[in-house]
Design a protein that fits this description.
Blueprint: H1 6-21, H2 26-42, H3 46-66, H4 77-115, H5 132-147, H6 157-165, H7 178-186, H8 193-226, H9 233-264, H10 282-286, H11 291-310, H12 315-337, H13 341-360, H14 382-389, H15 392-412, H16 416-425, H17 434-458, H18 469-486
Helix pairs in contact: 1-2, 2-6, 3-4, 3-5, 3-6, 4-5, 6-7, 8-9, 8-17, 8-18, 9-15, 9-17, 11-12, 12-13, 13-15
């Protein structure tokens, strides 16, 4: 039941009507919200729902066990660490089993043949439950925060089930934290004109970006990437740009719709994108792109590794402290997207960028970014720092955008030969279809880019939602008209639901 389907529209209208009638009964509202979330998830495959319920019950029990304060062995630090390891193994092990079994299947088949064990069970093709990559991390963050005494475990199973299974963000995030979400499920949720107004704006923004921008740009990108050898150098460049804008429009569209749906329920979700293509450095980019995942990687992988290496006093230890945390963190990010060589290379590419910017450029890492606590500069090359910073903000944004574009090219290609072809054939050489491809790129990305520039200049992601009512009505009407006229007739699934 994708957001961009008539089935979901009917589902939400029925759900929301009942939800509003239960406004003064928080517990009944929560029961109804959980039931709707489970129906929504079961629509994809009822077997997926069993996994979601199992993970919820498992984390509930582990969370309570981590909070035991008796004098018994279970309250001692070694036992709590074992409980945490069991909890993380249950969450992340489930994700690894479903997502990466095919990657290891060939080796496992060879092993079973050598030792004479039956291999029939390995021939079964497993389907990755939608959303598992997201709610497995969300459930793991709950256990990590309970173990670290940052939050108290909830004794309310209903509220924990909502935290893990809340349907607006279940399939593709944002990856929320229990400290932000559990209090919202516990207390009455009041709807104000402002929350409803911004919720409607976020919904329209999300559907416009998906139907008009992302899906049309996806047509351009697919044509070029699927038939790359038949296009000229500038066509390859345009195809890469189309995918670059498609990915941001598509993923931020899902996040906008999720936030809009949540606001209509009186619930606030984290902002997942803050104009990432206006970044001036890698750390700035990761403070703006897929923020909820960046924060997860920062808090649970980068910071622990960085603190561990801070204790190193030798030169080699300090060097390892500079290299290992960003490279390993971004490698995990790449593997989280998949085990394809392109995802792994993409992760390492961004890890190397982070290290190079810290070594070569005199800059203060962006607050909240993965590299926010990188150690001091090591052997800074003054010429590189002066050259890059001397370009000004606009120059640094353009350089970073080019580096981001190259990263998305690595992310999108399917074979090393395809990547090599793109890198060696991109040029300003045109073809008979170059003008039409460029015109389509401009047509479908222009409204999106204009809004992004306006948001950047005003420093406000909701700048359009604050316009006078009359102007908003005209703007919303125009957006709906463009969705009808320019929307792709064959709607596609959101890209990140696949991960």
């Amino acid at each position: 039941m994708p957001f961009n389907s008539l089935d979901f529209g009917l589902f939400f209208l029925i759900f929301y009507g009942v939800y509003l009638t239960l406004q003064k009964h928080t517990r009944l509202q929560n029961v109804w919200l959980l039931a709707a979330s489970y129906v929504f998830y079961a629509f994809w495959d009822w077997r997926f729902l069993l996994i979601l319920i199992g993970i919820t019950a498992f984390n509930y029990m582990i969370g309570l066990s981590l909070a035991v304060k008796t004098s018994g062995w279970i309250s001692r630090p070694p036992a709590r660490r074992i409980l945490l390891a069991v909890g993380l193994l249950g969450n992340l092990g489930t994700l690894v089993f479903f997502k990466y079994l095919d990657f290891f299947k060939a080796g496992l088949l060879q092993l079973t043949e050598r030792i004479g064990l039956p291999s029939d069970v390995l021939l079964v093709d497993l389907i990755l439950p939608v959303g598992l990559s997201f709610y497995a991390l969300q459930a793991s963050s709950y256990l990590l925060d309970v173990h670290g005494r940052r939050i108290q475990p909830t004794r309310n199973l209903l509220e924990l089930a909502l935290f893990i299974g809340f349907f607006p963000q279940l399939l593709a995030g944002p990856i929320e934290r229990a400290g932000r979400m559990l209090p919202q499920f516990h207390q009455p949720r009041l709807l104000t004109p402002d929350t409803v107004s911004t919720g409607i704006y976020l919904l329209l923004s999300g559907f416009f970006k998906k139907l008009v921008v992302a899906d049309n740009l996806g047509v351009i990108a697919n044509q070029v990437f699927d038939n790359y050898a038949s296009y000229s150098g500038v066509d390859l460049l345009i195809g890469g740009l189309a995918f670059t804008f498609q990915l941001l429009a598509d993923f931020s569209a899902y996040s906008d719709i999720a936030r809009g749906l949540a606001r209509l329920m009186g619930i606030e979700l984290i902002v997942n994108f803050r104009l990432p293509y206006f970044s001036t450095s890698p750390s700035d980019f990761w403070a703006r792109w897929h923020i909820s995942l960046s924060e997860w990687l920062r808090d649970y992988i980068f910071f622990p590794l960085h603190r561990a290496f801070l204790r190193a006093k030798s030169r080699s230890g300090r060097l390892a402290g500079l290299l290992v945390p960003p490279l390993l963190t971004m490698l995990v990010s790449g593997i989280w997207h998949g085990t394809g060589w392109n995802f792994i290379l993409w992760g390492l590419y961004h890890g190397i960028l982070m290290v190079l910017y810290q070594v070569l450029v005199r800059e203060r890492p962006a607050p909240g970014g993965i590299a926010a606590e990188m150690p001091g500069q090591v052997g800074v090359r003054k010429w590189a720092s002066v050259l890059l910073l001397g370009l000004g903000t606009t120059g640094r944004i353009l350089i970073m955008f080019a580096l981001i574009w190259l990263g998305w090219l690595i992310f999108r290609v399917e074979t090393p030969d395809q990547l090599g072809y793109f890198l060696t054939h991109i040029s300003l050489a045109t073809s008979p279809v170059s003008t039409s491809i460029w015109a389509n790129l401009v047509l479908f990305s222009f409204p999106f880019l204009v809004v992004q520039v306006l948001q950047q200049v005003k420093g406000d992601l909701l700048v359009l939602a604050r316009l006078p009512v009359g102007l908003r009505i005209v703007l919303y009407g125009a957006a709906l008209a463009l969705m009808v006229i320019l929307g792709v007739r064959q709607s596609s699934e959101f890209i990140y639901v696949q991960f």
